Every structure is written in C-alpha cells, then in structure tokens.
Amino acid sequence: MVTPLTANARDLERELTWFAAVLDTRLKLYFGKEPAIQDVRELPPPVLNGSESPYARFVRHYELPFAERLVVLLALIPLIRPQILDVLWSRNEDTQRGFTEFGGVHGATHGGFIPTGETAAFILAGDDLAERFAIMRLFEGDHFFARHNILQVAPVAAGESMLSGALTLSREFRHLFTAGSESKPGFNTEFPARRIETRLDWDDLVLPAATLEQLSEIKHWILHRRRLLVDWEMNQKLSPGFTSLFHGPPGTGKTLSASLLGRHCGCEVYKVDLSMIASKYIGETEKSLARIFDLAEHKNWILFFDEADALFGKRTQVEHSHDRYANQEVSFLLQRIEDFHGVVILASNLKGNMDDAFIRRLQSIIYFPLPKPAERLRIWRSAFSPRTVLEPGIKLEAVAEKHDLAGGTIMNVVRFASLKALSRGDNVILQADLESGIRREFLKEGRAG
Ligand SMILES: Nc1ncnc2c1ncn2[C@@H]1O[C@H](COP(=O)(O)OP(=O)(O)OP(=O)(O)O)[C@@H](O)[C@H]1O
Ligand SMILES: [Mg+2]
Predict the structure, then answer these.
(1) Which residues pair with 270 in a beta bridge?
(2) Residues 72-120: pLDDT tens digits?
(3) Which of 14, 19, 120, 227 shows the smallest number of beta carbons within 10 Å?
C-alpha cells in the first residue's frame, strides 16, 4: 500500500540519486577532473509530476527552482542519508585541514557532516561569485523559505559569514517530507496560539437571524475571496483580508462561532493568547506574532484573538515603560492584521472598551446578545447527553423562561447536573440538581437568581 510515508521514501530515493550526481559533478568541475558536463544545472532533477507524495506536492506547489530544491534536499540529508556527505570531510593537502569552501560543521552527537549555507553555495555556485550571491538570497527574510518557515541557516556569531550557519529545515517540513503528515505546532513561547475545534454543527448554534446573517458574510468571504480578489481583479481596491469583531457577554457563542466557521470552510482555527503576549513576552512578542501570521497566511488558518481588549483597548497614556512596549506591539499588530490575507476574528466582552480608530478599520462587527427565552429553550433542549433522561416533571420551557442565562452558563449547569447523576450511579437529571446548578451560576456571576 502506498502511504504518504512510503511515497516520500520512493521519491526521495530518486532525489538522492540526483543529488549525488550533482555533488559528484561539482567536485569534478572544481578539481578540474573533466566531468561529462560543464554546469551542475545541466543535471535535471527527477520528474515527480505523477506523484502524490507530500514531498512531490511540496515541489509542485512551489514550482521549486533548481537551487531551492537542492538546498532543501541538502538540509534533509543528515537525517535521511548522512553518508552521502562524507566525501566533503576530505583533507586539503595544501593546508592540512578540511576545505573551507565545503563549509559544514560537526554535530554534538551526529557523526556525519552537517551542511551549512557554505556547503550549498559550494555545490551550486562553485567559485562563481554572482551565483554565490544568488544563493545568499535564499536565506534572506523575504524569501519563501523564511516567510513560510521552511528552512533557514542557523544564526551565527557577530562578524561571521552568514553562510557558516547550519542549514536547518523546520520541524514541520522535516516531518512532512518523512512521515508525511503535517505536525501541528505546539503551544509555547515561540508559538502562543492553540488550535480550537468543535464537533458541533451550525444547527447547534442558536443566535438571532441577524447575527447568523453576519456570520454567513464571513463564510462567503472565505469561500469566494480568491475569485473576488484574483479572478475579478479586486485586489487593488479591496483589502486582502477580513477582520471581524465578535462582541457580547461571556458564554454567548463567540468562540463556538469562530470554530464553526473554520469547520464549515475547512480551515484550521488558531486562538492566540493575547494575555500571554501582552504581559510576558515583551520584546519577543513581535517575532512570535509575526511567525503566527506568516504561518496562518500560508496555511489558510483563521486567527482568533480572544479578549482582544487586552491589546486593542483604548490607548492608555504612556506612563510606564511597560505601556510603551504594549503600544508598539499594538501598532505592529494593527499593521500586520491589515496586511494579512486571511480571516482575523477578535473577541471582546465589551465593544465600548475597544479603541474607536481601530473599530473603524474592521470589516464587520458582530454582536452576540444573551439568548431570549425561546433561544434558551433551544439550547436547553439540545444540551443534555442522549444517554441521560430528565426526571419526570422537569419543564425545560419553564426553566428557559424563568432563568436569564447565556449558552455557556446553561452548559455549566448541564455539566453540574450530569455529574451529579453520574456520581449517584444513574442517568437521571434531577430538577433539584438543575436548580442548585443554576443558583451556583448566579452566585458566580454575582447576581440574584
Ligand atoms: N449561541 C449559542 N448557541 C448554542 N450554544 C451556545 C451558544 N453560546 C454558547 N453556547 C454553548 O456554550 C459554550 C461556550 O460558549 P463560547 O465559548 O462560544 O462563548 P464565548 O462567547 O466565547 O464566551 P467568552 O466571552 O466567555 O469567551 C459553547 O461551546 C456552547 O456549548
Ligand atoms: Mg470565548
């Protein structure tokens, strides 16, 4: 059976044969050994047109040019066939040391040759300076290697050649080219975002028609943005992204709606933790945010900024140095959001807290009201597990009518009453548990039931 893993292995085997021929030719050319051809670029890479391996799809997606293809492969070799590079350990008889022009570094535990930018420059450019400069461009910030977090040369000490850094393929692409599936980024300081998902459906979302209508506007944008911007050539006139503010009381379905939009449109939704960004990562923030935006753009993610007022709240007067940093971050974020070619959703409990200048730049502002009695009834009706039964006598109509609760709060009550049933060892939801659950929620929110 052909799996992504075996398809990668098959294609990379051919790529390695090509690589070995290129390396051999470069060495012959360099040492005047009269190879059959005059330029390594005359050796065409394998044709992977028919292949559906993740590696082949990557090559096609980027229409990967000769140099980029060779560099990706070179970066992958220590992991997949390290011995191919052993020839580069040769000793230079004139200097009694290795060849500077081969680059390469020793690893801490890896026994083989770890290729550097210099190695790439040697193989691709030999001693042609113009070609060398062209190779250096591959490692700059505006190249898609960096923008899409594919590959970089490891940072080097001040004053040293940037090409002396080891070629480093990102974890994500290393994984994609070997095991074959995309590994999801983990939540950490480098990546303060977490994927959110839901198993619920649009039908489960209970909101006024006007709110649903506004949500479908975002859906339409996601589904048709390419045609609108590209085919209809509106990209000069319209901004490339869509930013929406979801505001309303806690538990009214803002996070749920964002997850549903992702599910409906087949995009992943990443929730960015702004509290973490605003306080802890001053200085590092822009870098990690930039990373998230770059990845999101490339992968068609929806970015969801929860508690957006933490950053986009009314500008505070600059008193502490802390605030000054915060404001720099706000300007950076604003700019990045405006340039972003995707969907950004900001959530806040209070629109009044948000900066007016900021609000004007948004494509949509969607209010999530507390549910009315009839809406509460719909939420109650689908809230319980199908494995439970309600105690005879429970009238959900009356419960919905009487208690003014948000959907999130209703779910808290349902969790409470369900756990009570489980702890009794049965599956019956009791009226008394519903009532005490509701009282607890009112207490939590500091209001009287
Ligand atoms: N409008 C709604 N329709 C159906 N279920 C809802 C609705 N609102 C909330 N719920 C239920 O409550 C849960 C919590 O809601 P959600 O997290 O989306 O609220 P929120 O508006 O993001 O709240 P917060 O402002 O506190 O972040 C949902 O997963 C869902 O089960
Ligand atoms: Mg939420």
Answers:
(1) 195, 303
(2) 999 999 999 999 999 999 999 999 999 999 999 998 898 999 999 999 9
(3) 227
Would you state the CATH architecture of domain 193-367? Answer: 3-Layer(aba) Sandwich (3.40)
Q: What is the full DSSP assignment across 358-390?
A: HHHT-SEEEE-PPPPHHHHHHHHHTTS-TT-EE
How many Å apart are CA 110 and CA 411, to the nearest integer? 53
Protein residue with least CA distance to atom 24, ligand 1: 250
Q: How confident is the model at residue 339 (pLDDT cuts 50, 70, 90)?
A: confident
Task: With a cut of 80, say whether residue 423 has pLDDT above it.
Answer: yes
How far is 383 from 155, CA to CA, in rounded Å? 53
Distance (angstroms) between ligand 1 centre and the Cα of 196 equals 13
Q: How far is CA 248 from CA 48, 118, 261, 355, 371, in A?
A: 51, 55, 18, 16, 11
Q: How far is the CA of 186 from the centre of ligand 1 (A)?
A: 25
Nearest ligand to the CA atom of 251? 1
The CB of 253 under 6 Å from ligand 1? The reply is yes
How many CB atoms are located within 10 Å of the residue 23 CB?
21
Residue to probe by mutation, ligand 1, list 196, 197, 206, 255, most atoms within 8 Å of CB: 255
Q: Which of 196, 244, 256 to mutate to test the pocket of ligand 1 (most atoms within 8 A of CB)?
A: 256
Domain ranges across the chain: 4-177, 193-367, 373-444
CB 207 near ligand 1, within 6 Å: yes
Domain 373-444 has CATH 1.10.8.60: yes
What pLDDT, in 10s, does the model give residues 240-267?
889 999 999 999 999 999 999 999 888 8
Centre of ligand 2 to C-alpha 210, Å, is: 20
